[in-house]
Design brief:
- It is a single chain.
- The chain is of the alpha/beta class and 150 residues long.
- 38% of the residues lie in helices and 17% in strands.
- It contains 5 helices and 5 strands.
- It has helices at 20-23, 28-41, 54-64, 83-92, 130-147, and strands at 3-8, 45-50, 70-74, 96-100, 122-125.
- The radius of gyration is 14 Å and the shape is globular.
- The two termini are 16 Å apart.
- The structure holds 1,3,4-trihydroxy-5-OXO-cyclohexanecarboxylic acid.
- 1,3,4-trihydroxy-5-OXO-cyclohexanecarboxylic acid is lined by residues 11, 74, 76-77, 79, 100-102, 104, 111.
Length: 150
């Protein structure tokens, strides 16, 4: 069974109370539960991890190698600043889907740049928590194609 790492970056532990008009009213725990249920229905396993620290996110990406077959990454504000996170994803050679709750392209100019995107299979943004489920669907299709499933 394929295993997916769902990795959330800084300030996403505050979902539910953090600017709900931008990020919605669901908590991270609710989103992770929805991901687990959705993944199970798709025959995938998920591990969820959140950190406010860039180095911990990098370590989690390194540790995914050999353990997970894909990564769903919401790097929060590190999306727009972290070459180190981008390099970490390139280094482990695992398919990664970048996700954001909000539509970063419709917001402030500094959010339009994503270093993460260069290392991503694709980017999903603007669909709120549903984006995580869309990313799971996309990874399931990608991994099945990689395995050569009919
Ligand atoms: C975010 C968008 C980022 O610009 C912001 O810094 C976040 C959340 C999102 O999910 O919409 O922390 O990644």
């Amino acid at each position: 069974m394929s295993s997916i790492l769902i990795l959330n970056g800084p300030n996403l532990n505050l979902l539910g109370t953090r600017q709900p008009e931008v990020y919605g009213s669901e908590t991270l725990q609710m989103i992770e539960k929805a991901c687990r249920d959705h993944a199970q229905a798709k025959g995938l396993e998920v591990d969820c991890l959140q950190s406010n620290h860039e180095g911990e996110l990098i370590d989690a990406i390194h540790n995914a190698r050999g353990k997970h077959q894909g990564i769903i990454l919401n790097a929060g504000a590190y999306t727009h600043t972290s070459i180190a996170l981008m390099d970490a994803v390139f280094s482990v050679e695992l398919p990664m889907i970048e996700i954001h709750l909000s539509n970063i392209h419709a917001r402030e100019a500094f959010r339009h740049t994503s270093y993460i995107a260069r290392a991503a299979l694709g980017q999903i943004c603007g669909f709120g928590s549903q984006g995580y489920l869309l990313a799971l669907d996309a990874l399931a299709v990608h991994l099945a194609a990689q395995r050569g499933d009919q």
